[in-house]
């Protein structure tokens, strides 16, 4: 069986909501049935086969290709299988995802993996703003699973994040881990201003000192933390630069905060 | 075009018609005399169907800042309840606090043809009217909020004469394009800004030294002397506080016989007896209403489930914010004019207080004798979303259903309530009074709420059914200004209603002093504050209907 491939026939004029096209919805459907699925774009309803050429037969492996930046909600609420996106994609990729894996070979728009509950999102490119955050107006962001970004991430990554792991190999924008409730965000590159703004609990793991740190974080000095090598060891099995980090001594400078909020969060800046 | 509705059973309380089979003729949007020899273009035969005027909701929060903030605060309500666009209808969303278009559609589908927004902050009136201008199908109107505004309080503190105060009230009505005046927690919202958490009826407020009772009296007198048909619309002191029954009774007694409408009286009818220091004051309140013909009330019934409380009463809303569910809330102070507090809330039938609130509302409905003086509201969305009106009507009309519901609530609340012993069941005639004729009369809308010759052809037709909830949730036909807009509970045509306003006379020389005040303290010029008619008629989508102020010395 070959992967079920959805090729965009031409660039859609408006963003297309492809949320119905996830493996579990397609498993028992024939190709014409898949083609008849109704998608919303702008204020129009369109059949899947009017904008996509469909080939292949294994819906557990789904491939989106073509001008995929026009696709929003790729893999929304997906719980099984694998979705590959051969290019950049729109907003809300992997929103509410419960399981399975999404690989994006390009950049993603805002709110990628927002309110994610499980599974793995791998971005071979840059992740947009509000990666792993809550949807606007909602109170709880990512609640499980893992996101790996090989490029940079935008502002407010992990906003109101509750559980799970964000691994960012490049830089992150301002307010990383803002209003975080719990969970882990690790950033290998540089971090913008005010990481951990309003964070209640949770851990921000940094390899570089942030540009600016809020005054409501307390410097707790340098510590040798026994759990750090174990945490990093747990990334060994993953396909990411985090798997190949040099053996660390587990020494880190610890800041506690945000004291303007609950204040049980921590920013750990690794000491080389 | 001439339309004939034939064979329907008509309930038209304004003309004392109680279930008579009559024919009704519609021409050019109005109800007309039987024509002599004109051709009839359309006939609807309505055997076994019930015909009433379109329903009128006198107190429902459908436009203005607080509603919008509530929508923004509760995106989950909108994600969970999308309304896709169709050939005919615009897209929308929301159940407990629907978007503008959805508000119009849902009301019209239930046979409502006019809805009044009771909290138009004059400073915010343009936004409120623009938002209501986006509500299709129904007529609307607003009550301008006074009584916590800095300018008015200054006038009272300086003991300006009543004539000058009347001019100010009339000017506000004109400038904000409203139909009446409402006061919310008189003086209390203002006191909250001075960090005060409670203001009793006879307690001088901070800075201005004016008591809530003085504010009530001055405003009620102003409306009376200006001959504005709708009496002062009052949201009293101490909303939701156990024992506030005393305040409410004192407010009723203290208005000196002037006409006064008490809004969502259910929230103001609490005693402080019993183990939980919370009891029903419905009997005393209903008795006081029965005894004082100058008083009208709407109930503000609560019904169980998720909703959101929106109120200008930021003082009381702040007191309630710890009970917010989901846990989030928003408060806004608006330019020395009033306040705004949004607190989402879930009423639970197994919660003693909520269950007792439910019985208190129903008790008031059933113990106030005169249906012309009690109105059907849930204070949407404060007590429940307006879409639950058919359910509420069934509770009033069907005693056995009511008692079945009573058996499911918190047992202590059921035991503490006299509801089970009340045998009254509302008749269709009484429902027609409280949701149509009475409402139109109270608001001074002479051509609405009845089916007499010359009235606007706002007509709702239901199929007679045992289950009154079913009957009232899905009318067979709804006519708005003579056009058929709903068939079998579904919208088939979209029209745009009218905005009802009053324009009492006033001495325009007050604008000089007002203008100085605006220049010194407020964010806009007086000229921008006033809403012009052209703005209300926005691209032909809206209309204005000016209702005359009562003839002097008539009843
Ligand atoms: Zn209200």
TrEMBL record, chain A:
**Known EC number:** 1.2.7.12
Which GO molecular function, any one, fits this protein according to its record?
formylmethanofuran dehydrogenase activity
Record's protein name: Formylmethanofuran dehydrogenase subunit C
Q: Which GO terms describe its biological process?
A: methanogenesis
InterPro entries per UniProt: Formylmethanofuran_DH_suC (IPR017550), Glu_synth_asu_C_sf (IPR036485)
Q: Which EC class is this protein assigned?
A: oxidoreductase
Q: Which Gene3D superfamilies match?
A: Glutamate synthase, alpha subunit, C-terminal domain
- SUPFAM superfamilies, alphabetized: Alpha subunit of glutamate synthase, C-terminal domain
- Sorted UniProt keywords: Oxidoreductase
**Naturally occurring in which organism (per UniProt):** Nitrosococcus watsoni (strain C-113)
UniProtKB/TrEMBL annotation, chain B:
Q: Which Gene3D superfamilies match?
A: Urease, subunit C, domain 1
What the entry lists under Pfam families is as follows: Amidohydro_3
What is the top-level taxon of the source organism?
Bacteria
- InterPro entries found in the cross-reference section: Amidohydro_3, Formylmethanofuran_DH_asu, Metal-dep_hydrolase_composite, Metal_Hydrolase, Metallo-dep_Hydrolases_sf
> CDD domains under this entry?
FMDH_A
- Which Gene Ontology molecular function entries are recorded, alphabetically? hydrolase activity, acting on carbon-nitrogen (but not peptide) bonds
Q: Where is the Amidohydrolase domain?
A: 42-465
Q: Give the signal peptide, or none.
A: none
Protein name, UniProt field: Formylmethanofuran dehydrogenase subunit A
Identify the species of origin: Nitrosococcus watsoni (strain C-113)
């Amino acid at each position: 069986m070959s992967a079920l491939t959805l090729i965009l026939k031409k660039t859609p004029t408006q963003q297309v909501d492809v949320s119905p096209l996830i493996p579990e919805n397609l498993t028992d459907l024939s190709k014409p049935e898949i083609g008849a699925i109704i998608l919303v774009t702008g204020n129009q309803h369109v059949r899947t086969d009017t904008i996509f050429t469909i080939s292949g037969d294994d819906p557990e492996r789904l491939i989106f290709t073509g001008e995929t930046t026009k696709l929003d909600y790729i893999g929304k609420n997906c719980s099984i299988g694998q979705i590959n996106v051969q290019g950049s994609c729109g907003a809300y990729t992997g929103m509410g995802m419960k399981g399975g894996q999404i690989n994006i070979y390009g950049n993603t728009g805002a709110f990628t993996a927002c309110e994610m509950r499980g599974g793995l999102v791998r971005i071979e490119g840059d992740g947009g703003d509000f990666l792993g955050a809550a949807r606007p107006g909602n109170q709880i962001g990512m609640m499980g699973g893992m996101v790996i970004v090989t490029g940079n991430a935008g502002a407010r990554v992990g906003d109101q994040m509750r559980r799970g792991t964000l691994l960012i190999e490049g830089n992150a924008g301002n307010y990383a881990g803002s209003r975080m409730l719990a969970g882990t965000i690790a950033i290998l590159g540089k971090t913008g201003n005010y990481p951990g703004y309003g964070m209640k609990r949770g851990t921000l793991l940094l390899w570089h000192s942030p540009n600016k740190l809020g005054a409501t974080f307390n410097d707790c000095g340098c510590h040798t933390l026994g759990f750090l090598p174990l945490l990093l060891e747990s990334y060994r099995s993953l396909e990411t630069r985090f798997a190949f980090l040099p053996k660390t001594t587990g020494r880190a400078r610890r800041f506690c905060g945000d004291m303007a909020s609950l204040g049980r969060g921590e920013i750990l800046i690794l000491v080389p | 075009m001439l339309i004939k509705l034939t064979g329907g059973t008509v309930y038209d309380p304004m003309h004392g018609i109680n279930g008579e089979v009559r024919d009704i003729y519609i021409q050019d949007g109005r109800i007309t005399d039987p024509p002599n020899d004109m051709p009839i273009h359309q006939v609807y035969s309505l055997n076994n169907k019930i015909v009433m005027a379109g329903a009128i909701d006198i107190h429902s929060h459908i436009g203005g800042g607080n509603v919008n903030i509530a929508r923004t605060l509760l995106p989950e309500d909108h994600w969970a309840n999308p309304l896709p666009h169709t050939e005919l209808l615009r897209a929308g969303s929301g159940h407990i606090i629907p978007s503008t278009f959805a508000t119009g559609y849902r009301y019209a589908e239930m046979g409502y043809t006019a809805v009044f927004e009771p909290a138009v902050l004059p400073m915010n009136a343009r936004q409120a009217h623009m938002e209501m201008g986006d509500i299709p199908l129904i007529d609307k109107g607003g009550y301008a909020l006074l009584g916590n505004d800095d300018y008015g309080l200054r006038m009272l503190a300086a003991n300006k004469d009543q004539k000058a105060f009347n001019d100010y009230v009339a000017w506000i009505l004109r400038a904000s394009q409203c139909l009446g005046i409402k006061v919310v927690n008189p003086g209390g919202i203002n006191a909250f800004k001075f960090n005060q958490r409670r203001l009793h009826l006879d307690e001088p407020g901070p800075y201005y030294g004016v008591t809530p009772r003085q504010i009530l009296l001055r405003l009620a007198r102003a409306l009376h002397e200006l001959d504005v048909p709708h009496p002062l619309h009052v949201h009293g002191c101490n909303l939701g506080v156990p024992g506030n029954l005393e305040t409410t009774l004192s407010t009723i007694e203290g208005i000196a016989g002037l006409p006064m409408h008490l809004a969502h009286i259910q929230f103001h009818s609490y005693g402080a007896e019993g183990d939980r220091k919370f009891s029903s004051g419905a009997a005393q309140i209903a008795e006081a209403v029965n005894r004082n013909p100058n008083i009208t009330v709407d109930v503000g019934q609560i019904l169980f489930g998720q909703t959101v409380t929106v109120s200008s009463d930021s003082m009381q809303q702040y007191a309630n914010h710890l009970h917010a569910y989901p846990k989030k809330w928003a408060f806004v102070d608006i330019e020395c004019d009033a306040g705004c507090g949004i607190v989402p809330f879930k009423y639970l039938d197994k919660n003693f207080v909520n269950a007792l609130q439910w019985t208190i509302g129903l008790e008031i409905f059933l113990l106030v004798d005169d249906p012309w003086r009690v109105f059907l509201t849930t204070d949407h969305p404060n007590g429940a979303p307006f879409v639950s009106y058919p359910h509420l009507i069934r509770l009033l009309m069907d005693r056995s259903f009511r008692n079945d519901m009573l058996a499911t609530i918190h047992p202590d609340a059921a035991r503490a309530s006299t509801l089970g012993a009340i045998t009254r069941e509302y008749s269709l005639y009484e429902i027609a009074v409280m949701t149509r004729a009475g409402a139109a009369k109270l608001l001074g809308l002479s051509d609405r709420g009845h089916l007499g010759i010359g009235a606007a052809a706002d007509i709702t037709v239901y199929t007679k059914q045992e289950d009154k909830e079913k009957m009232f949730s899905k009318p067979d036909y709804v006519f708005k200004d003579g056009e058929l807009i709903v068939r079998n509970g579904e919208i088939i045509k979209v029209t745009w209603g009218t905005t009802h306003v009053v324009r009492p006379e006033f001495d325009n020389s007050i604008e000089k002093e007002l203008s100085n005040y605006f220049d010194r303290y407020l964010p806009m010029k007086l000229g921008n504050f006033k809403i012009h008619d052209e703005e209300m008629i926005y691209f032909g989508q809206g209309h204005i209907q000016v209702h005359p102020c009562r003839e002097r010395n008539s009843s």
